[in-house]
Amino acid sequence: MADPILRSGIFLAPFHPTEEDPTLAIRRDLDLIEWLDRLGYEEAWIGEHHSAGFEIISSPEVFIAAAAERTKRVRLGTGVVSLPYHNPLMTANRIIQLDHMTMGRVMFGAGPGLLTSDAMMLGIDPLQQRDRMMQALDVILRLFRGESVSETTDWYTLKEAKLHLLPYTRPYPEVCVASTVTPSGGRAAGTYDLGMLCVAATQPDGFDALAVNWNTAKEIAAEHGRKMDPVRLRLVGAMHIAETRAEARRNAEFGFHKWFDYFQRINPARFAALPKGDPLDILIASGAIVVGTPEDAIKQLDRLYAKQGAFGCFLQLAHNWASWEGTKKSYELYARYVVPHFRKANAHRVQSLEWTTAHNQELMALSQAAQQAMFDKHKAEREARAKAKGRAAE
Known about the structure:
Layout: E1 7-12, H1 22-39, E2 43-46, H2 60-70, E3 75-78, E4 81-82, H3 88-101, E5 106-111, H4 116-121, H5 129-144, E6 149-152, E7 157-161, E8 175-179, H6 184-192, E9 195-198, H7 204-223, E10 233-241, H8 245-252, H9 256-266, H10 279-286, E11 289-292, H11 294-308, E12 313-317, H12 324-343, H13 347-358, H14 360-393
Parallel strand pairs: 1-2, 1-12, 2-3, 3-5, 4-5, 5-8, 8-9, 9-10, 10-11, 10-12
Antiparallel strand pairs: 6-7
């Protein structure tokens, strides 16, 4: 199996500081998707959260419906639907409706739910979330296939449940599961032949677990007589790039520390082992984030390839570290310089220039000969015309 051509996208949680107007923040998220569509990004995944104040999109499906009307080609995914929070029939119906509304551009990302505060508000025991995700996922895939499902559990009841609208995408939209550190994502992907969203790929624990969880998926898939396709593997990492490292560092001062403080509040253990100092500089030095140039972004992806092997898409974690203009510029620089590097988009251009350079003396001689031939031809024609005029005058 040949290595897949690397696709580009974002993972939009989103992260918006609590002093900023939330309406304008969500409108700017829509503007961002539109900007990425113009730049040629292939994917955008939108999160679902219900508490903690920063990640303020509670329905990725509603957001996707609006974003789809603003864009032409970017594929839009739920990143992710927290399955234990929803009746599986309702989830399946929403995704298939979006499949039709986007004419096949929707992707279905599924997970157990990230914020424990969400689960607590819903009276869900966090210890049950991963098992419930697998229960719901099994049912949703059966519904996608057109099956009728009757099933009673301790959290939902279905009686001859069946979709009244079959998928626009055949057999059904692409399905991915979230994967961080635990093997649950790899187990689900291998069992049900799904893609994987490695949402903490550049964080120390998530980086260490990359190959382990993908190998888990491959082993379980092999038990079912299948192979995992790296085209469907997405790695998520945070970066902000500018034309110089110093400029990128100044840009990130705008919002990085607010983003960092948010994680310190909701999950103090995430960065508990950091040494003393500015966390921005520490995380840059550790490789957990990139704040630098397109060359630094290329080095980060090379690092991921060395750890993981082949994968299909790199998703930048949307974070609002920089101002809006700085953020747009970062995504533009990535599209201009990082994407063509990994797609070898300029390989033939470089070869053509090198070939021309190697033959420049020969080509210049031919060009000069052609020019001189034109001068000689013109002179001969004018002399012949003058002679003809002279004979006519006689």
